[in-house]
Specification:
This protein is of the alpha/beta class. Helices cover about 40% and strands about 20% of the residues.
């Protein structure tokens, strides 16, 4: 039986959780999960043999075992430690921001004083920020979570699967907009403008924490919205149970992503250099979704690109008949994941 170490010290607990579910019955691979306490608490169904640890202890713990493959779920900090791991083990890194992964040491240094200065200085002085390019350039396997269309030098790591194929029918047409309410990530200003022209009875759920300026927008819209539009929003972080409940009630997902965002003051482009979590949401809950007009959705029949009449498009998208279980069943994705892992050992 081949042995794999899966490391997640920072974020993306949901990806680690998917990996756990897909590998739990494997007769071919034995996986040990090295998790920070924060990540462990965020995984709904953590592996019973998860190892809660801190980054400085990782290297010594890995040396005590004989792993055929080490997978690092996120390399956005602890670069000095991950550099040593990539030098000593057959290692794969999941890339979440492709432009960041190609940035030079000089480029990263110039970004330190552009935003979030105290945290970035910490990365520079204590976590080996300038060694990040060495991690990404020397690692044996660069992985993307995109289910389709992955090209060299990247490899696909299939972990997105359909968990819920049943629909909890809502009382009215329910549009869910998943994700933290941030204008930097999604065009909420555009949402409010378009909702004013809706004629159908709809419930719109902003399924993520709303705060600051965006919360003010929601409150103001609530005072002047059309009578046929009802809204629901949250001022605290949405817990997993509430998120799951509303996602299952959704008639359709509306994901008005900004075409670009930034990571470490570096531009990233959704669908090109960065995958949106909304894609995983649609697959997990078996929901068709409306994405922006310019989002590259050719590989995904359940994604509809936005056009002029957004209300009509949302209604049509809710009636789409894509078979998520056939394309993304847990067994099918687990088989694909096993094949991907074999190719790296």
């Amino acid at each position: 039986m081949k042995r794999i170490a899966y490391i997640e010290m920072d974020t993306h607990a949901e990806i680690a959780g998917n990996f756990v579910q897909l590998m739990q019955d494997s007769a071919e691979f034995k996986v040990d999960y090295y998790l920070s306490e924060k990540v462990f608490k965020l995984i709904e169904k953590p592996a019973t043999d998860s190892i809660i640890t801190i980054p400085p202890d990782l290297l010594g713990m890995l040396k005590d075992a004989d792993y055929d493959l080490v997978i690092i779920g996120t390399v956005h900090r602890y670069f000095n430690i991950f550099k040593k791991i990539t030098e000593q083990f057959n290692t794969a890194v999941i890339v979440h921001n492709q432009n960041f992964s190609w940035a030079s040491a000089f480029h990263l240094f110039t970004r330190v004083f552009q935003d979030d200065i105290a945290y970035r200085i910490k990365l520079l002085l204590t976590e080996g920020l300038l060694s990040a390019p060495r991690v990404y350039s020397k690692v044996k396997h660069l992985l993307l979570l995109n289910p389709d269309g992955v090209k060299a030098p990247y490899k696909s790591l299939p972990v997105l699967f359909n968990e819920f194929s049943d629909t909890v029918n809502p009382d009215r047409f329910c549009i869910v907009i998943p994700g933290s309410v941030s204008q930097k990530r999604r065009d909420y200003a555009g949402i409010f403008q378009k909702l004013r022209h809706f004629r159908s009875e709809v419930e719109v759920v902003f399924l993520g924490k709303a705060a600051g300026e965006e919360l003010k927008w929601i409150v103001e819209f609530g005072k002047s919205k059309p009578g046929n539009v009802s809204i629901r929003y949250f001022t605290e972080k949405v817990d997993s149970k509430t998120f799951e409940t509303w996602m299952r009630k959704a008639s359709v997902l509306w994901c008005p992503l900004q075409s670009e965002t930034t990571f470490f003051s570096q531009k990233e482009f959704y669908g090109v250099t960065k995958m949106t979590g909304n894609l995983g949401d649609a697959i997990r809950f078996g929901k068709c979704a409306v994405f922006p007009e310019d989002y590259p959705a050719q590989e995904f029949p359940f994604i509809f690109n936005e056009r002029e009449n957004i209300e009509e498009l949302l209604l049509n998208a809710s009636a789409c008949s894509f078979n998520f279980q056939q394309a993304y069943s847990q067994k099918a994705v687990a088989d694909a994941l096993h094949a991907a892992l074999r190719s790296m050992i």
